[in-house]
Amino acid sequence: MPSNNKTILNFGNSHVSASVFSETNGSLLLSKSSMETLHYNLNDEQAWLGASIAAVKKLIEKLNIKGNVYCILPGSMLLSKTIRIPHVEATKQKKIISFELSQKLPIPLSELIWDYLVIDDDGVEEEVLAYAVKPNLVEGFCEELIKSKVNPVLLTPSPILDYNLVSNFLIDPQKNGQEKILTVNIGAKSTNLLFIDENGFLIRTITIGGNMLTQSISDQLAIPFEKAESFKKNYFSGQIALEEGDPSLGVLTNASAQHVSRISQEITRALLHYKRIKKGSVPQQILLTGRGTIIGGLPEALAQNLQMSVTHLNPMQYVTTGESVNEEIKAIIPFMLSESTGLAQTLLVGSQKHKTINLLPRDKISAIDFNKKLPWIGASILLMSLCPAPLLLMEIGRGEELEKKLSEQSIELSDYESEFEVLNEKNKEMQNLAKLNSIIFEKQSQLQQYTSGNQIILEILNFLQEILDDPKIGDLWFDELKFKSDDSKQKLILVISGRYLVRIGEDSEEKNKSDALIELNTLKQNVLNAKIENHEKFNQIVRKTFSTEGKGDLFNKHFSYFEYELLVSEL
């Protein structure tokens, strides 16, 4: 392959892609590209690494990948933190960032591999985005990739790479920072929001992804998660069609509508926060990317909800594709290749404006550089073996001197061995202390479960108090509040029931009282439904019941009965 080729491996939560880019006359050429879907238990993060390595080995063989590779890691596998620090000299910057991160990350900084990027600088303060990863994840990546005869030279987080693509092609510097764009990258587990302008970007991650929609379809159709994922992709990509009366069509339509509504709400909150910190300034358009945006009609629905211009961010507009890239891959490039294209832009035609975070340990980089030099070292040894005999005689004399030194050092070594035995005994004591620490940690973890349960109850009681205090509902009381498990015994359901009064004016005519009661009762029902549906603690309303007769008596005593079963989200 030509020396300017860059092979990029994009490790996602649901798939792995491999792409080979090169630079031609200042533009990008995509010569090879392929993708493998991951198959693993999504609740087991440890299984993700094994599934990813198995997938990337297939891609390496399929595309005949060799040499250096540049790897993109999903944000869900990393720790991230945004901090603000004073604008200081570069020599002091890292010390200040290190101190701030050590105070704010849940794991000691010495136990992590980390790197950072200045994403905004107004001359007084700098906004810094830092990412960190556990060493065992990086070690696993490097060892498996090296076994496959490729050298990882970069491990970089995916959430920030869309900035490189958008800022290079879509932000016009002539507009003096007035042009602002929001990219929405919907992945399997989360959605990344990048607010981009000429000066840099702000990032926000929301915990809504394509897997949430798949889980909703799986629950409602009572099918396994993987089958629901395949069904979702095939339907929204147009590979299958459903008839008008098919019950599955209604499930898909309702589930996707709720999914889009949740995304719209989170984007609205993010826009309000951005408008507040930017003193009224908001993005002019939204660009969608990520495989989670494959939902039909998503741009139109978001445009209507947010009253903004919404389109797809299509890397194909800025990249020339080679003949070896097949049509099937070209069809999904707009949904999966924005991060890879952004990284390729930085590596091949980038500038100082586009820096890259690298979570690869320095010792690994040094080892890879040393492996590159091994052929030259071997050639040097061969040349030395052909040196004349006098030189060899001199080396023999030096060898005798070295043997004498070896004898002296053997005596010193025996002394060190005695010290080693003492240190070994201390090490055993430390291991015993570590076991004791592990037992104590396990006991504390069990107590944490009860603490988490208490937190859920407190939050729910606060929410119920908000309902009681809401003047739009008013005159409401609760008869029952209890928790139960669903059929799988894995999810928590809250059961609440109660009654509320429906008040009408005393001067209402008798013949109009029934209509007035029905109308006011409907209004109270709608307000109560909306308040519960919009609360972040409830994932779903499993069942709801309203009674105006029997348990309720709307037309005589002017009260109605209600009962809800609500699926409680985790802490």
Structure characterization notes:
By secondary structure, the chain is an alpha/beta fold. Among the domains are: 163-313, ATPase, nucleotide binding domain (Nucleotidyltransferase, domain 5), CATH 3.30.420; 388-446; 470-568, Threonyl-tRNA Synthetase, Chain A, domain 2, CATH 3.30.980. The protein is built from 13 helices and 18 strands. The protein has helices at 45-63, 90-104, 135-147, 161-169, 210-221, 225-236, 247-277, 298-306, 327-336, 338-349, 362-385, 389-469, 510-533, and strands at 6-11, 15-24, 27-37, 67-73, 79-86, 113-121, 125-133, 150-157, 181-186, 191-197, 200-206, 285-289, 309-312, 319-321, 476-485, 492-501, 538-547, 559-568. Helix 5 (210-221) crosses helix 6 (225-236). The chain is globular. The chain starts with 5 loop residues before the first strand and ends with a strand.
Order of neighbouring strands in the sheet with most strands: 8-4-1-2-3-14
**Oligomeric category:** single chain
SS strand fraction: 15-25%
**Rg for CA atoms:** 31 Å
Number of helices: 13
Give the structural class. alpha/beta
Low-confidence stretches: none
The percent of residues in helical segments reads: 40-55%
Please tell me the CATH architecture of the domain at 163-313 by its name: 2-Layer Sandwich
Largest sheet at a glance? 6 strands, mixed
Q: What is the tally of beta strands? A: 18
Highest-level CATH class of the domain at 163-313: Alpha Beta
Whole-Å distance between the termini? 50 Å
Shape by Cα distribution:
globular
